[in-house]
Write a structure and sequence with these properties.
By secondary structure, the protein is an alpha+beta fold. It has a single domain, classed as Alpha-Beta Plaits (2-Layer Sandwich), CATH 3.30.70.100. About 30% of the residues lie in helices and about 35% in strands. It contains 3 helices and 4 strands; from the N terminus they run E-H-E-E-H-H-E. It has helices at about 15-30, 60-65, 70-80, and strands at about 1-10, 35-45, 45-55, 85-90. The protein has a 4-stranded antiparallel sheet with strand order 2-3-1-4. Strand 2 (about 35-45) and strand 3 form a beta hairpin. Helix 1 runs antiparallel to helix 3 (about 70-80). InterPro entries: ABM_dom (IPR007138), Dimeric_a/b-barrel (IPR011008). GO terms for molecular function: monooxygenase activity. Keywords: Monooxygenase, Oxidoreductase. This is Antibiotic biosynthesis monooxygenase.
């Protein structure tokens, strides 16, 4: 499954500031059972808007990680709060349909 959220970096701050905190928190979170990686994408026409995608084996795995308070992760998230606004987009199942150009294979 995918957990997707949008990050808007506040004026006077940079996406790199958020990315630093995001990488530090992700390195810890990704040690949880079922974690499959994270991605951070910058919007093409607005460098202060990012989309983050966390991949998990299942919603249950992600919920289990969320249910276990990690003070280090909480501290990192609090440190980023003053310079960004995070909006959850939602939780999505892995794709049911993948259409690739001829000769290409979907990433595994």
């Amino acid at each position: 499954m995918k957990y997707i959220f949008e990050v808007r970096v506040r004026e006077g701050h940079s996406a790199e500031e958020y990315a630093d905190a995001w990488v530090r928190a992700s390195e810890i979170i990704q040690q949880a059972p079922g974690a499959r990686g994270t991605e951070l994408h910058r919007k093409i026409d607005d460098p202060n808007v990012l989309i983050a995608i966390a991949s998990w084996d299942s919603k249950a795995d992600r919920d289990a990680m969320e249910g276990q308070h990690n003070p280090e992760v909480a501290s990192i998230i609090r440190s980023a709060a003053p310079f960004c606004e995070i909006t959850p987009i939602g939780e999505f199942e892995d794709p049911e349909w993948v259409v690739m150009p001829p000769g290409k294979r979907a990433a595994e």
